[in-house]
Design goal:
- The chain is α/β, with parallel strands linked by helices.
- It is 47% helix and 11% strand.
- It has 8 helices and 6 strands; from the N terminus they run βαααααβαβαβαββ.
- A 6-stranded parallel β-sheet has the order 3-2-1-4-5-6, sandwiched between helices.
- Strand 2, helix 6 and strand 3 form a beta-alpha-beta unit.
């Protein structure tokens, strides 16, 4: 069954993990406290602050306590949906101000452009919020790559290491699971995608193997027609 859609991870796959951990996370940690203080009553921000209180089981937490919880989550890299949403809002300001540019590996840029031209539908699935995903590709060092993509998925589709998440994504994309190839640098994510019926390809940019999966060190070595 021929591949029709390509679903890709971001961190360690299309983009350097160091960009997220050494640039984006520190930027959010620095600017998030003042952002929350200034916009706590804005509807979209207030909604996420309420979610933080709910998720942390601290319904009476004031704004400063919520900020402390968020900074703790950043430090431990917790995949919390309200944190990801708020980080995305902070990053949006940074991108719009020209203080941030999304990192995408040149080999990924070239392959994504080629696959788009060849008629493959391209999708992103990352633990970062959909907004943050759009910013990385829309404000990348290589320019605006957003026209290449047909859709984005984040933790609202489910955890990345659970097969049900990939089943949910398959239903949304609207093709058979076997017609989707998922790209990631994390073997547990690849295992979950395969359990949902998807084809898989591991990215090991420093070399090595992701056990049980076709593994390459560059997008240049990925040919969707071979899956």
């Amino acid at each position: 069954m021929p591949i029709k859609a390509i679903l890709t991870d971001i961190e360690g796959t299309t983009s350097a993990v160091s960009f997220v951990f050494d640039v984006l996370f520190p930027y959010a940690a620095k600017h998030l406290p003042d952002f929350v203080r200034q916009h706590a009553t804005r509807a979209d921000v207030a909604e996420q602050l309420a979610a933080v209180r709910r998720d942390s089981q601290e319904p009476d937490a004031d704004v400063e306590r919520v900020i402390a919880i968020l900074l703790g989550w950043i430090a431990e890299d917790r995949k919390a949906t309200p944190l990801k949403a708020l980080q995305g809002m902070v990053w949006a300001q940074g991108y719009q101000a020209g203080q941030l540019k999304g990192h995408v590996y040149p080999d990924a840029v070239e392959a994504l452009k080629r696959w788009h031209q060849e008629g493959y539908k391209l999708f992103v699935y990352s633990s970062g919020s959909i907004q943050a995903q759009k910013l990385i590709f829309g404000c990348s060092e290589a320019g605006d790559l957003s026209p290449l993509f047909s859709g984005y998925f984040d933790t609202t589709s489910g955890p990345k290491r659970e097969a049900q998440s990939y089943q949910n994504i398959t239903q949304t994309i609207g093709v058979e699971a076997a017609q989707i190839v998922f790209l990631s640098d994390i073997v547990e994510e690849l295992d979950a995608a395969r359990a949902a019926g998807m084809a898989t390809c591991g990215l090991a940019r420093a070399g090595g193997e992701l056990a049980g999966h076709v593994t390459v060190d560059s997008f240049e070595r990925i040919n969707p027609s071979t899956f």
